[in-house]
Design a protein that fits this description.
The complex is a heterodimer of chains A (554) and B (232). With 554 residues, chain A is of the alpha+beta class. Chain A is 52% helix and 19% strand. Chain A has 14 helices and 17 strands. In chain A, strands 1-2-7-4-5 form a 5-stranded antiparallel beta sheet, with no helix packed on it. A 5-stranded mixed beta sheet of chain A has the order 10-13-14-17-16, covered by helices on one side. Chain A has a 3-stranded antiparallel beta sheet with strand order 6-3-8. In chain A, helix 5 packs parallel to helix 7, helix 9 packs across helix 14 and helix 12 packs parallel to helix 13. Chain A is rod-shaped and about 135 Å long. In chain B, helix 1 packs across helix 5. The chains are: A alpha+beta (554), B alpha/beta (232). Chains A and B meet through helix 10 and helix 12 of A and helix 1 and strand 5 of B.
């Protein structure tokens, strides 16, 4: 219950103002006369506008009507929101100063925009009272800003904003930690994901925004810097209004992200331009533009069935609702917090997706390793080889011995490369030649191996050319002279390394579709493992036989 | 004797050819080697052989496609393959034998011996009979077959759903492939023993087997005694 009351007080819903007349209007007079301090001085001829007071001293008088106050509210305090440097008189009694008025040729020392004064207990009878202020406003002489008065329990006036700030600082601390944490993640990750950087920046900016909002409690801010602070807050909101939708665009794979961002940027700049000087309104419009853009991206994300779409939508709705219902100062922060929390959640989803991808990559790698090893022990290869070997041994032991030697060498190379993801091209070529020699014993064909333009410093995923060679052997019939020729050619262009592998032979008629063959799957998986998306693979029949081309993009 | 070897490994094909020649050394024979499935199919449709030696993994194509077509034909098929895990399937489809690679002469001769001696049955049970109908090969479960009737160069499979299918294999070849419970009760009839209700004698001392389906099939004079003994 206490908390509820606190919260409602926080939201300014419960307090009955001590000042009965709404918006008491001050009247001004330029000049300096201590007689103007008196409660009952007749100020009928004073002006409701101050005019440009230059560096002169001027007075203001304001009549406030107090209601009877409860004992808990005593002692009463007066909060004044005003520019300038001034002395404050309550019913003719000096109750405090803000800054220093110009004196003996010394310039004004500016006061701060919001100041607090204790009202003497004997001067709080219900009815009319006069607040007279002896002021100067030499730093913003032409700025007409109304003077705001709030009367409440003195202690409450001083402590309430601090309590609010404490809660806001709690939030700020959380954002600071998040910012630092995600910056570290970004800096230490190999992949340097943009979304992490954006998220960290959003957290940092939001931390700064909160600190700026409550800056007046940290440092004495002269009224002359008042607009600078608002300007900073404005630009922080501006940047966040850009970054939040950007983050969603990345998370939800929004296709026309660049255009949307451009539109958003132009909108924000437009808002800044047309509402220059209306800080609160501009900030509100910024966050509205941000919400609308984010809605577009998130709704599209839901349509694309992206993970976390509904969570983000719920957060945006809640945020819009809070923005609409709660007074701006808190509303902005609470709605922002909701959005950032949803972003944090999205991030955790993404992290788990990346984790799963990584797991899969590791799994794929070990699967490919296994597949490579299996090439030589799978029954079709091994048992056919052994059968041929039996025959050679029985018929011609010397050749049989050579055959065994060739097979042993192929096994050795396989064993050597099996655990690597990239091997020197020379190793791969050695493997191919050894394989050809084994197959020569088996198939008793005249295999010719040709290589052109090989750059011996290049690396290649293991057994990729070997797989093409296997396919060539399996799917080709010899030409006259019982020959099948294989030609591997390497070329380097501006943006790619290219290997073309040609089988010069007659293609065997195919009875089943070859496109999805295991060999091709292996090659593609190996290329993906080492080069991600940066490769192409094509394979097809030609006049002379069969041609495959692998491009590794730079 | 007409033998087709379908094997894409030249060395192994020659080995099969040499051993086959050696086995059939005392009788006239012709051996044709095909190094691809396509060529194999063309060859057996051009000239029906007596025996096909078939490698199951042929140039990456599924040898079982060919196997289905082969076992539906009139000749016997012996599988010579590296895919030893396919042995049981090969027998189920109706291969006469499965010679796993690598093989020596002894193992291969055993398979050829099985081919030349009709009384030797395969190691594993056949599960299906493949029949060709309108160009399509259909597998019929052995449990559906009640009896088989020789009809010239074909055989008629009589099934428990009352229908019958034509098979290209002779009664002798089918008897060799089918399990023991298929009895030759007559020179033209091969019956699932479990389907016989009783043996009856019809006037003129002709013997007949009354089936559970109510059909009566003739029983050969020479088979009667055997059958009678088994029935008791």
């Amino acid at each position: 219950m206490y908390y509820l009351i606190f919260l409602l007080t926080l939201l300014d819903l419960l307090a009955i103002p001590v000042i009965r007349n709404e918006d008491p209007v001050p009247v001004y007079k330029t000049g300096d006369n201590m007689a103007w301090v008196s409660k009952n001085y007749n100020d009928k001829d004073w002006s409701e506008t101050r005019g440009n007071t230059s560096d002169k001293i001027f007075w203001s008088r304001t009549h406030v009507d107090l209601r009877p106050v409860e004992n808990e509210l005593i002692p009463l305090g007066l909060q004044i929101n005003s520019f300038g440097a001034f002395e404050v008189y309550w019913d003719g009694v000096l109750i405090g100063k803000n800054g220093q008025l110009p004196k003996n040729g010394n310039p004004e020392i500016p006061g701060t925009e919001c100041s607090y004064y204790r009202i003497p207990n004997h001067l709080i009878s219900p009815g009319l009272h006069t607040i007279a202020m002896r002021s100067s406003q030499s730093l913003y002489p032409d700025v007409q800003r109304n003077i705001g008065f709030t009367i409440n329990n003195y202690e409450t006036l001083l402590t309430n904003p601090l309590i609010t700030m404490a809660y806001m600082n709690l939030m700020a601390g959380a954002f600071l930690i998040a910012a630092v944490y995600y910056f570290f993640i970004y800096l230490n990750s190999k992949r340097r994901q943009k979304d992490i950087l954006i998220f960290a920046t959003i957290c940092l900016l939001f931390f700064t925004l909160l600190i700026m909002e409550y800056l007046k409690f940290h440092v004495m801010l002269p009224y002359s810097e008042f607009f600078v602070r608002l300007e900073i807050i404005g630009w922080l909101t501006f940047t966040n209004a850009l970054l939040v939708p950007w983050y969603f665009i990345i998370q939800f794979n929004f296709r026309y992200g660049k255009w949307l961002m451009l539109a958003l940027l132009l909108t924000l700049l437009g808002l800044y331009w047309f509402n220059y000087g209306h800080y609160d309104l501009t900030a509100r419009l910024y966050s509205l533009a941000m919400l609308i853009t984010a809605f577009i991206v998130v709704l599209n994300g839901i349509r694309q069935k992206e993970k976390g779409g509904f969570i983000a939508l719920a957060a945006l709705l809640a945020s819009a609702l809070v923005n609409r219902l709660v007074v701006y100062d808190f509303g902005l922060f609470i709605s922002f917090t909701i959005i950032v929390l949803s972003m944090l959640y999205l991030h955790s989803i993404r992290t788990s997706v990346i984790e799963a991808e990584h797991q899969n990559a590791v799994l794929l790698s070990s699967r490919l390793q296994l597949e490579l090893l299996k090439k030589n022990i799978q029954p079709h290869f091994l048992r056919n080889t052994l059968t041929s070997m039996m025959d050679w041994v029985e018929e011609s032991p010397k050749d049989g011995a050579r055959f065994i030697q060739a097979l042993a060498t192929e096994f050795d190379i396989m064993n050597e490369i099996s655990e690597q993801t990239l091997i020197p091209i020379t190793k791969e070529l050695e493997l191919c030649r050894q394989h050809l020699s084994v197959m020569g014993f088996r198939k008793e064909m005249n295999y010719i191996w040709d290589q052109k333009g090989i750059d011996e410093t290049q690396l290649i995923p293991p057994a990729v050319i070997h797989t093409l060679l296997e396919n060539g052997i399996t799917h080709s019939e010899p030409l006259s002279g019982n020959t099948i020729q294989f030609v591997l050619q390497y070329s380097l262009s501006k943006d790619a390394h290219q290997y073309t592998f040609e089988t010069i032979a007659k293609n065997r008629p195919v009875m089943t579709d070859r496109a999805g063959g295991n060999g091709f799957k292996y090659i593609k998986a190996r290329l993906t493992e080492s080069y991600g998306q940066n490769w192409t693979f094509e394979s097809g029949s030609t006049e002379n036989g069969w041609m495959s081309a692998i491009q590794i993009l730079k | 004797m007409n033998i087709v070897i379908i094997e894409d490994e030249a060395r192994i094909a020659r080995r099969l050819q040499r051993m086959t020649s050696e086995f059939f050394t005392d009788r006239p024979h012709e051996i044709i080697i095909c190094d691809s499935l396509q060529k194999g199919l063309e060859q057996v449709s051009r000239q029906i052989p007596d025996l096909v030696l078939l490698d199951l993994n042929l140039n990456g194509d599924n040898g079982f496609e060919l196997l289905e077509q082969m076992v539906a034909a009139s000749f016997h098929t012996i599988i010579v393959s590296a895919n030893i895990d396919k042995a049981i399937t090969a027998f189920a489809y109706g291969a006469l034998d499965f010679v796993p690679k690598p093989f020596d002469q002894e193992r291969f001769f055993k398979a050829l011996t099985r081919f030349v001696s009709p009384t030797l049955k395969p190691n594993e049970d056949i599960k299906y009979l493949a029949v060709k109908r309108a160009g399509q090969v259909r597998l019929i479960s052995i449990s559906e077959v009640i009896y088989i009737k020789g009809a010239g160069i074909y055989t008629e499979l009589h099934l428990n759903n009352g229908q019958h299918e034509l098979h290209d294999k002779s009664l002798e070849y089918l008897q060799q492939l089918l399990p023991e419970r298929f009895e030759r009760i007559h020179k033209s009839y091969l019956v699932n023993f479990q389907q016989i209700e009783k043996i009856i004698i019809t006037p003129g001392t002709r013997y007949g087997a009354l089936l559970k389906t109510g059909e009566v099939l003739p029983v050969g004079r020479s088979k009667y005694k055997d059958l009678k003994n088994k029935m008791v």
